[in-house]
């Protein structure tokens, strides 16, 4: 992302919209960030629409100095204020953001996994180039999970041919642990 000029987005509720279509295409093309408004499955960055970013994506791009965000009064939005908004509005925001950032920094393409009942669908190359090989569910290290939830998630991920991964986020700067579940036949 080095060398890209800062792109401007506007904070609207829990989303950031990049209204300039050229900037929207540029941002999408550098890492499949956001969703073009009105286009459910873009094949590539050749679209003519604004781009909608989640708070997680917007915070990451703001911290990477790729995005500048303004509010409805054209005042600049800081990473700290965006993080606070996320924590107030989105359950597990701190945990979800930590995992998102770790995966993006390692070069993975991280998208919403909501349609699969997971926090993230993760790609190695990108949507349209492959099916997401991984589904990730984020938990705090001290959280509990019902074993039935693991079975449900495992069966779903198996039916859509994806590995199911629990991302266990520890306190502070402790590393996240990733536990991969695989189906086996006895």
Can you walk me through this structure?
With 186 residues, the chain is α+β, with helices and mostly antiparallel strands. It has 2 domains: 1-90, MutS, DNA mismatch repair protein, domain I (3-Layer(aba) Sandwich); 92-186, Trna Endonuclease, Chain: A, domain 1 (3-Layer(aba) Sandwich). Helices cover 30% and strands 25% of the residues. It is built from 5 helices and 10 strands. The protein has helices at 21-29, 55-63, 79-89, 93-105, 147-159; strands at residues 7-12, 15-18, 35-36, 51-54, 67-70, 109-112, 120-123, 134-140, 163-169, 177-181. The strands form 2 sheets. Strands 3-4-2-1-5 form a 5-stranded mixed β-sheet, with helices on one face. Strands 6-7-8-9-10 form a 5-stranded mixed β-sheet. It is globular, with a radius of gyration of 17 Å.
Concise description?
This protein has 5 helices and 10 strands; from the N terminus they run E-E-H-E-E-H-E-H-H-E-E-E-H-E-E.
């Amino acid at each position: 992302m080095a060398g890209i000029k800062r792109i401007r987005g506007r904070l609207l509720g829990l989303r950031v919209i990049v209204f300039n279509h050229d900037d929207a295409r540029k941002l999408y093309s550098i890492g499949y960030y956001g969703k073009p408004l009105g286009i459910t499955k873009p094949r590539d960055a050749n679209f003519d629409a604004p781009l909608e970013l989640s708070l997680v994506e917007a915070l990451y791009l703001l911290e990477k100095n790729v995005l500048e965000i303004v509010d409805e009064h054209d005042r600049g939005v800081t990473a700290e204020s965006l993080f606070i908004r996320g924590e107030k509005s989105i359950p597990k925001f701190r945990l979800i953001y930590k995992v998102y950032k770790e995966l993006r920094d390692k070069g993975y393409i991280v998208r919403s996994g909501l349609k699969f009942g997971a926090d993230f669908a993760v790609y190695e190359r990108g949507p349209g180039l492959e099916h997401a090989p991984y589904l990730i569910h984020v938990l705090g290290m001290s959280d509990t999970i019902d074993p039935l939830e693991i079975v449900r998630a495992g069966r779903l991920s198996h039916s859509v041919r994806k590995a199911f991964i629990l991302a266990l986020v520890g306190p502070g700067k402790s590393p996240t642990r990733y536990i991969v579940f695989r189906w086996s036949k006895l």
